[in-house]
Amino acid sequence: MKYAQALDYIYGASRFGIKLGLNNISKLLELLGNPHEELKIIHVAGTNGKGSTSSFITSILKNAGYNVGLFTSPHLEVFTERIRINGHNIDEEDLARITAIIKEKAEYMVQNGYNHPTQFEIITAIAFYYYKEKNVDFVVLEVGMGGRYDSTNVVKDPLLCVITPVSLDHKDELGDTIEKIAYHKAGIIKKGSDVVVYPQEAVTHEIIYKEADEKNACVYIADIDNREVIESSIEGQKFNFKLDNEIYENVEISLLGDHQINNAIVATTAINVLRKKHNINISKENIYKGLKETKWAGRIEILTKNPTLIIDGAHNEDGANSLARAMDKYFKNKDVTFVLGMLKDKDADGVIEILMPRTKKIITTKPNSDRSLTAQELKEKINKIGRDSIAIDDISKAIEYAVDTSKEDEVVIFAGSLYMIGEVRSIIRNKYKNKKLPL
């Protein structure tokens, strides 16, 4: 099997839909020798901040000299981003070879009366098989959707569980209330596990603690209030915080936004539990260097300057609020052009209400997905709040129009869908890399 054939097979499995539950993934992994049972796993669930928090944890462990697998979804530019070791994507040849093995097992399952694995079950199995094959020291495993019935929750004995901010998303699959969403996220908690939690709404804490009590798990709430921001600009952030009576001074991160400082503290809390409860050798210097070197594409990421072109994965209310706070902080006195593209199953009205009042000019476009709203449909939603916009379905043309009509001291922000910003990232990095737009 070649790489292109592997992608065809993986993408083709989308026809089996989304099926929450662990029976199928359990059978598939059993046929593969249960590779996940031999891995030390840090399991990360939440609605927002999973990727950034996972990346902070991975970078710290890597700086401590460990080989660390990072499993995330979706990808921005290339599929292999989803399965990484120490920042390096899985090789295309390895992906193709392992996919062929998975395909053989999937066919056996169907022949013996099981359902065909879903796309995400296939990807999860590829990741576990690859990480076991490469004998990594740790796997930082990001939940795909929800948690309780997500394929990744086949893990029975994680080294650590982490729950990032919980808010409404994937309402059709997970439910339309915070209580229902929190129930799914809390499902990653296992018997006797350690659980690091980003401070949540009271009702979410109640559900997490109830699950933890039933499982005799130990909960650690990250102290994000006990911090002092020293510097915060588009060049990066510096801050102090206290953790277990230990002071961390002049901590630096390159990721922007107050929420990323919070995510860094959650990640450090997780590392602290690994150090103290599991005797994992990680120095304070490893923590400083790991946080500083963390990169996470697509989250208030500045691609060029003059004009400033930014992409961000804000696609729900919490994500939009984080981006709005960053806009107010870094670009309050700047004219902002906003290029928005969203999927039909996301809270477009909520995102529009939060972000559009902060913009001078709005361009709507269409992400490359059959689940997308058209540019005209988005434009009509924006009209309802009394704003006008320019509808351009083609993303490349939308980028060109936004750049051509913006002055050097202005800001252009692309957001609303990870599908869209990945394409934007590729186009901008290729199209403008030889022009007078410093990357």
TrEMBL record:
Keywords: ATP-binding, Folate biosynthesis, Ligase, Magnesium, Metal-binding, Nucleotide-binding
EC number(s) reported in the record: 6.3.2.12, 6.3.2.17
Pfam families: Mur_ligase_C, Mur_ligase_M
Biochemical pathway: Cofactor biosynthesis; tetrahydrofolate biosynthesis; 7,8-dihydrofolate from 2-amino-4-hydroxy-6-hydroxymethyl-7,8-dihydropteridine diphosphate and 4-aminobenzoate: step 2/2; Cofactor biosynthesis; tetrahydrofolylpolyglutamate biosynthesis
The Mur ligase C-terminal domain, residue ranges: 298-417
Cofactor: Mg(2+)
Catalytic activity: 7,8-dihydropteroate + L-glutamate + ATP = 7,8-dihydrofolate + ADP + phosphate + H(+); (6S)-5,6,7,8-tetrahydrofolyl-(gamma-L-Glu)(n) + L-glutamate + ATP = (6S)-5,6,7,8-tetrahydrofolyl-(gamma-L-Glu)(n+1) + ADP + phosphate + H(+)
Span of domain Mur ligase central: 44-270
Top EC group: ligase
Gene Ontology CC: one annotated term: cytoplasm
Magnesium found in the keyword field: yes
GO biological process entries: folic acid biosynthetic process
PROSITE patterns: FOLYLPOLYGLU_SYNT_1, FOLYLPOLYGLU_SYNT_2
One example GO MF annotation: dihydrofolate synthase activity
Similarity field: Belongs to the folylpolyglutamate synthase family.
Subunit: Monomer.
NCBIfam families: folC (TIGR01499)
Protein name: Dihydrofolate synthase/folylpolyglutamate synthase
Species name: Alkalithermobacter paradoxus
Lineage summary: Bacteria, Bacillati, Bacillota, Clostridia, Peptostreptococcales
Gene from which the chain derives: fgs
